[in-house]
Specification:
Layout lengths: L9 H12 L5 H15 L5 E9 L5 E10 L5 E3 L3 H9 L3 E3 L17 E9 L2 E10 L7 H18 L4
Antiparallel strand pairs: 1-2, 1-6, 2-3, 4-5, 5-6
């Protein structure tokens, strides 16, 4: 976790992701590197990673932990539950200033105070979510939301070329 919050250069971050994804045929290293890029570039965060849509044992959709940077995390999140499940189920960005006030919030790390979750699409459907947590209240600004949404669009383009 970084101690100070500074402005992130999202254009640089986007170009780094484009360079890392160039010619990458597999999705797993692509999203592993994306989580590492974000964790290193964003100040004031304590977790950055992905949850991927999978069927559970009954065939119901759920989110399963994917590549991430940070402390150990929840491995399964029910569809529509918490910030991640809500983002996936509604196919919408969730920028939460106070996670403790979010109905059904799942506290994987009690130190987290704010969170942003962005749906990731592949083949026209929600494939997973990018989840970033911060111990700082209201850490994520509208500028962060726009920059991270652009980052995810680049990731989606790269994912469309992977197996």
């Amino acid at each position: 976790m970084r101690s100070s919050h500074s402005t992130t250069d999202y254009r640089l971050l986007a170009s780094q992701l484009e360079a890392l994804s160039e010619g990458e045929p597999a999705w797993l290293p692509l999203i592993a590197n994306a989580s590492a890029l974000l964790f290193e570039a964003l100040d004031g965060i304590n977790w950055a990673g992905f949850y991927l849509v999978q069927p559970d044992e009954t065939g119901t959709r759920e989110l399963v932990l994917g590549p991430f940077q940070g402390k150990a995390a929840c491995t399964h999140i029910a569809w529509e539950r918490g910030v991640c499940g809500t983002s996936a189920a509604t196919d919408s960005i969730q920028r939460v200033d106070d996670v403790h006030a979010f109905p059904g919030h799942i506290a994987c790390d009690a130190a987290s105070s704010s969170e942003i979750v962005i749906p990731v699409h592949r083949n026209g459907a929600v494939w997973g979510v990018l989840d970033i947590d911060s111990p700082l209240p209201a850490r994520f600004s509208p500028e962060d939301e726009a920059g991270l949404a652009a980052f995810v669009r680049i990731l989606e383009t790269a994912l469309s070329r992977t197996r």
